């Protein structure tokens, strides 16, 4: 009684999926990080942005020694900034990140030196390790430059010199990024979590259906059945890839409700994560889930225990999981070879989707080809190694 | 009907070595010439001490690896040439017989039935039938993770028999079983050998002499990779000129020792 390849495939596939789904404890453990990590980080980031925006709206400057500089006070108040005096221990508090604003320090002789044309010095104090205080520095510097320019213009006007001399060139700023592209700077971490989800989902199933089967002693009886090893391996691999995709889908879906909770209005307006993104992201994961599942199985089939296999797969998991870091650390510097590296390719493509750019075949195909080649190569290796693995 | 003719198999093992030096390869002759003929309707024993090559021989029978020399046929089908057809005619309970812990006993049995080409209904019906035969109704729908040694063995046996094979191969099936479970297994095997049970060809490998004495009509004694003697239990006693089967076995298996001093393995088997 020989069974057809397709039928054997479905029998093995159905059993492996049912078996993996019954492992509730492991499933829960991998679902928690896959489902919660991304949205939580997104919320934290949005909180940070919201507080930055709130500060920009507040229009406040924190100053030490404002009483020595009535002219500067007059300028600041004309720019509709409210002046707050800084606490005495501002340096310590900046270092301890309890003070989140940079501090402007004005010397006692400011007004006298200014009137005498002696260029008084003011200090802008912040702590570059205190990121939120650091973020306020450019605004403060711009204000002070404005003050400088106003003073210079006035002096020149008094002497009858055209103020145009001060500005030889007119500078006009134009931002070409679309709203989505600007939001992508913030949401660029999402693809990393989805790639991680594929890894988590595929890893346990891949190890359990190869090394786990050997460790339990069930691989030998399994091979004593009259079915082709290719069908057996395909069935197992199908289940592994499906689980990777299922966890990726859940992780994907978790970002849909997460965006409603985003605190920053402008980020919420920019960050669009709808059904189109969910479906596209999922389709983009297919080559990754297929190729990675096969690679993990190929690594695990030579291991006698799941523990040994985990040690062996740690490198692959780390490399693929951290691949998105390459483009996070080098934003905008995408190279053509990115599209050929599993993990990095998916990350690059998902970032394009988030930026609202079109996916072309030229961009998608390299990842698909690499995924298909990995799948075929690794599965043939597993099918060939199975018998040898049992005999050892 | 199983014919194993003068099979041999060698492996390469490594010596210990040290931190900086790999162990040197060493050839291990696991099997050097085992012959066994097992017709239908008979329980044929494969008796030998630990490490005699029983498991290796049976793994070659199951097609896990090719013998270096000799041939194996099952109902006239050569295992080396048509492993899948041969496997479909055998039910093998091997040395490793792990179950899927998250599947119930029934699901474990049905899965293998389906892989043997049975349709779902037939596999379920057969699982029910085997459950009655092996007295495992109470555990049939329980997950295998909490099973005792005996329950695990019953499930593995049912799984091996699910496609009602004409040839049944059992590798040390009584390992870890208590007296009652061993007795029950013996009854089942006697039934399967009888005409009512389908006149199966049964190959039973063990290192325990009592098992062979009580169950096997024909015994092949294996020692150090070779089959050294064969016949019924009385024939083997006569051949060795002994009255106790244990003495006969030691004499046949270890001919170099003049006085039958029990080897460590044989001594263990007594307990």
Secondary-structure topology with pairs:
The complex is a heterodimer of chains A (392) and B (271).
Chain A: H1 5-22, H2 24-58, E1 60-64, H3 70-78, E2 82-85, H4 90-95, E3 103-106, H5 110-115, E4 122-125, H6 131-158, H7 179-187, H8 190-216, H9 219-223, H10 229-260, H11 265-270, H12 275-301, H13 306-329, H14 344-354, H15 361-391
Parallel strand pairs in A: 1-2, 1-3
Antiparallel strand pairs in A: 3-4
Helix pairs in contact in A: 1-10, 2-8, 2-10, 8-10, 8-12, 8-13, 10-12, 10-15, 12-13, 12-14, 12-15
Chain B: E1 2-14, E2 25-38, E3 42-47, H1 54-61, E4 69-74, E5 77-78, H2 83-88, E6 90-93, H3 105-115, H4 120-133, H5 149-161, E7 167-171, H6 179-193, E8 201-206, H7 209-215, E9 218-223, E10 226-231, H8 233-240, H9 245-253, H10 264-270
Helix pairs in contact in B: 3-4, 3-5, 8-9
Q: Name the chain pair with the biggest interface and residue counts per chain.
A: A-B, 29 and 35 residues
Rounded mean pLDDT score of chain A? 85
The tally of beta strands of chain A, per DSSP, is 4
What is the topology, as strand order, of the major beta sheet of chain A?
2-1-3-4
Radius of gyration of chain B over alpha carbons?
A: 19 Å
Q: Please state the CA-atom Rg of chain A, rounded to the nearest Å.
A: 30 Å
Spatial order of the strands forming the largest sheet of chain B:
6-7-8-3-9-10
User: What class do helices, strands and sheet pairing of chain A give?
Assistant: mainly alpha
Bulk shape of chain B: globular
Share of residues in strands of chain B: 25-35%
Highlighted features:
heterodimer, A: 392 residues, mainly alpha, four-stranded mixed sheet, 15 helices, 4 strands, 4% strand, elongated, B: 271 residues, alpha/beta, six-stranded mixed sheet, four-stranded antiparallel sheet, 10 helices, 10 strands, 36% helix, globular, disordered C terminus
